[in-house]
Write a structure and sequence with these properties.
The chain is of the alpha/beta class. Helix content is 36%, strand content 22%.
């Protein structure tokens, strides 16, 4: 069974997307409140991205992320342009359980190995954005334009054991789930795979789940959860409204 990980993207201290309730109203866009909401709905982990950190290469929304870590009792996987040992160290210092680094770190093998040797391969994972299996980065990187499987193979040689893969469109937003690339990453690169984004509903999730034998064991889902695309979410909302004891309590 795939582990479903809710995504929270932070920009200017606020959630980039909001969750819609049963009556169509919106929850607070406060990231801490959002983290508590997903925990109440029994999330076992959260995937948090500091969107403001992508360009500078280090965390920007440090204080709000620290509050999120303190607020919930589940692991937070944190990414957002982390491209140096110091940036990764800061992420762990504020309480991240696992850190997602970009392909630009793979361009600097010594730095990548230093990060892995210090924090461990279970705590530091590679994030790859790709289009049709070709790496696309928002910052200068030698990996840009290379085959994603080749980059993952190189990363594995350095010591990486997991990749978070997102298929992106020309505008940089997720455009769907690239099932063949996910399978190739597992089969050819020998990595554990987290599918990030592109899942629009139950049908997509079930298709991704079919790739479990090839190393795909988790899925980060943002908008589909935010828009209640899974029938169980409606039940959760009604349980909350009626104060029925069917959801995990924080």
């Amino acid at each position: 069974m795939l582990l479903v990980i809710p995504a929270i993207e932070i920009k200017n201290g606020r959630c980039f997307q909001v969750v819609h309730g049963v009556d169509g109203s919106s929850y607070s866009d406060d990231p801490v409140a959002m983290a508590l909401l997903w925990r109440t709905e029994n999330a076992k982990s959260l995937h948090v991205t500091d969107l403001d950190g992508v360009q500078p290469g280090h965390l920007v929304n440090t204080e709000v992320i620290r509050k999120m870590v303190t607020a919930v009792d589940i692991p937070i996987e944190l990414g957002g342009g982390l491209r140096s040992f110091e940036a990764v160290e800061e992420a762990f210092r504020i309480g991240a359980y696992r850190v997602v680094v970009g392909t630009s770190l793979v361009d600097r093998p010594d730095e990548a190995r230093r990060v892995l040797q210090t924090f461990g391969a279970s705590k530091v994972v590679l994030g790859i954005d790709g289009t049709d299996g070709v790496v696309r980065t928002q910052v200068a990187s030698a990996s840009n334009g290379r085959n994603a499987v080749d980059v993952a193979q190189k990363a594995r040689e350095m010591g990486f054991r997991r990749v978070v893969y997102t298929d992106v469109g020309p505008d940089g937003t997720s455009r769907g789930v690239d099932l063949p690339v996910l399978r190739a990453l597992g089969e050819q690169a020998g990595m554990r795979i987290t599918c990030s984004g592109g899942i629009s509903g139950l049908d997509d999730l079930l298709k991704v789940q079919e790739l479990e034998p090839f190393g795909v064991d988790s899925a980060v889902i943002g908008r589909a959860l935010c828009e209640n695309k899974f029938s169980c979410q409606g039940l959760w909302r009604r349980c909350e409204a009626g104060n029925f004891p069917y959801t995990a309590r924080v």
